[in-house]
Structures are given as structure tokens and as C-alpha cells.
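PROTOCOL LOG
Step 1. Enter all chains and additional molecules of the complex.
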Amino acid sequence: MEIITSLENKKIKNLSKLLIKKYRDQEDKFLVEGEHLVEEALKAGKLIEVIKTEEYEIDYEVPITIVTYEVLKKLSNSVTPQKVIGVVKKLDEKEIGNKILILDNLQDPGNLGTIIRSSVAFNVDTIVLSENCVDLYNDKVIRASEGMLFHINIVKKDIEKFIDEIHSKGYVVLGTRVTDGENIKNIEVNDKLAIIMGNEGAGVRREVLDKCDKYLYIPMNESCESLNVGVATSIILYELFK
Amino acid sequence: MEIITSLENKKIKNLSKLLIKKYRDQEDKFLVEGEHLVEEALKAGKLIEVIKTEEYEIDYEVPITIVTYEVLKKLSNSVTPQKVIGVVKKLDEKEIGNKILILDNLQDPGNLGTIIRSSVAFNVDTIVLSENCVDLYNDKVIRASEGMLFHINIVKKDIEKFIDEIHSKGYVVLGTRVTDGENIKNIEVNDKLAIIMGNEGAGVRREVLDKCDKYLYIPMNESCESLNVGVATSIILYELFK
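Step 2. Run joint prediction.
Step 3. Record the structure below.
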């Protein structure tokens, strides 16, 4: 059994490029870390190969490369990475469903991961990311999603065109706005529904917001101006889709 | 007008120690960064002094020290800090109220900040932190709280003793548990209520959970095992306290 011990090993050097978006896009692959995520990738039929340390025991029918812990660290942004890393094929974009969450320019990877997790919990079937959202395959997104990205259809779209398209198919599009919005407790839920949430600081862009059919807000104490976007999204999904 | 330009300046060196918990505890002070947080500290009557760059304009009746941006960076963990930093007196612990959130061994600073923000939004009056929670005055906690820590009573307690104490005062104590729990939609809300949420990985400790009067769960799709703890806490507060 061969163990890769050199930090200059070509295979490892190439794989470590997958920590950068440009190379993930070029190669159509990404990395996941730790047993839970590797198993989720395997179950989804997307696991290409595994890189692990000698003592870490797994029994998957994919190529396995054994490396020292120092070498494995080159494939992770964590200070103390877990001892197994999966090389995974990017997910396919599927047809959109009837319960859609649209994210406009969401920037924080932790927020995107959390929102993916909540979307699966509350039965969203399609997440639509604007072109300028944080990369879905960013390691922090994947970690925060707890592997839930393998359980939901996630597609990338030009949001404005996409809203026109689903409007013509009879979807109701909801935005969030405090003034002239309806309390989420009172919103009537349509069969074909899309909810738009926006950037952490700026919210949903005005030109996108203008395309919404209805506006909703979460009732809250006046001392608090706003919620974390991951929390706000999750409460709306809980209230409307669960 | 004197401008501090030396990274070796004694005052700055002393203040930079407030980035470390031990010194925050010793000095009973902490740092906040950016106009919004400094103003929240001022409004709360806790702002001791301000450190800022020359071009940053403010007009507060507290001592102001002007420094170069390089010097100011010594007072922040951010790569590109905002140009005003406040030195703030730690908050006082007040009497507990009737709507209590207890956090047992919560570790992620972003989660604690988010939960503080949601607690203010949904009318919690007291947050109780176990001794081993992440430090309330950690810069990431403060940033994620968006200054809401100045709008709520936060106290540190031995959780097990605290539960016995509030039990004797007629509070109902709720824990989260999927098995044998009640759907949060159906929970009857008592006048004096405490909700316990736990650690990101391990949840609430068994010995603490055993002390609860009732258990609740958030209904969700079976593909998803659990929610982010900030999200779960926020949904429970939204459902029970709003």
C-alpha cells in the first residue's frame, strides 16, 4: 500500500486547486471533508474518489488514495481537518419545482449553508441562486449545509429573467418588505410559490423587488431592526412551506 | 491635535489586550467596532471612550483618541476594520424576567450573536448563559448581534442550579427533543417560561434535559436531521414569544 508523503505530489497539488472556485468550475468537481459529507456524496452517486489518512477506515467502492495528515491538510482550509476528504462531481441542475427559494446576491457562506439546510427541512424543492451569490461549492457553504446540498435542486439563474419566466407559468412571487407588507402569519399560500431573499446588508435589489406580487414581513419587537438573513429565511420557510 | 502613529504606544497596547477574554474579564471592558455598535454603546450609557482615525467624524461627549489606520488595526481582528472603535463597559446583570432563553454550552460566536438578535426581535427578556458558553464579549458575537446585546438582559449562571431556582418560582422549563416531544405548534405557552437550547454538536446535556417539564420539536422533512441551532432557537422564539 502506497502512502503519499510528499507535499509536492502532483495529484495532491492538482486536487488542492479545487479549494479555488476557478478550478472547481474548470474541473466540475469540488471537495468535501469528513465522514458525514463523504457519505452524503456517496449516497448521491457523486463521489469520485477518496483521500484519507492510513488509520481512517472506510469501505467504499471508489478509488482511495492514502496520504499523511500533513499532505491531507493541503486539501482543506481547516486548521485541523478531518481525516477523510472526498472528491465530488458537481451537482446537476434539474427542472424547477413548485416551492422555490430565490437568493439574490447572498454573500456569507455560512448563511447560504444554513439556508440550504433549512430549505430541505421545510420542503423547498428548488433553490435559485443569482449569478453573484457566494459559490455553492465553497467549503464553508458545504460545511454549514451539513450535507443537505445533496438533497435539493439548486440552480443558478439570471434572477430578473427567471421571475418573468415563472410569472408566465402562474407562480406567485413573494418578497420581504416591512412597509406595505403583510404579516407572514396571514399570507395565503399559493400552490406555485417563489420567495425571494436578498443580500446580508442591502437586501433584495430594488429592480428585483419591484417584480414581486406580494410583500411579507416577520412581526418583531421594534427594538430590533432586522434578523440574520439565514434566520429570517428559515422562519418564512417554516411558516409557509412546512 | 495629537495623532498616535506608533504601534508601540502604551495606551494602544493596553487596549489591544481587550481582544483577549482574560483581559476583558480583568478590566471589565470590551471593544466594539463601527459606527452602529459605538452608537448603541453610547445610547446604553456604556461607552467609555472612542479610538478613531483622523478623517472619521463623530461628536460624542466621551474622550476621543485619534490614531492612524495602522494603529487602529491593532484593536481589531478584522482584516479591514471600520475606522471607529469604542471602549465599552461590560453590561450589568439584571433581575430575570418571565421570558427566558437558557443556552447550554453554545460554542459558535456567530450563533450566539444571531440568537441575541433574534431574542430581542421575539421579546425574550433574559438570556442565561452557562459558564462554558463562548464569551459574550467575543468580537464575533458582538458583530453578529448587530448591537442587540445592549437591548437585553444577559446573565451567566450554573444552569442546573438556575433551573431548580426558577422551578421553585413557578416557571415552566421547555427542552427540545424529537422523541416524546410535542410539536411547537401545539405547545401551550405559560406566563413564566424558560426555553433551553444546547451545544451545536451535542445539544443540551442529558442532566439538564432531564430537568425540563416539557419537550418540544420543530416539525420538518425527514431528509433533514436537524437545523442550525441559531435557526432552531429563532423559530422556537418566533412561535412561542412573538
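Step 4. Note key features.
Chain B has a mean pLDDT of 95.
Chain B touches chain A at residues 110, 114, 117-118, 120-123, 144, 146, 148, 151, 218-221, 223-228, 230-231, 234-235, 238, 242 (CB under 8 Å).
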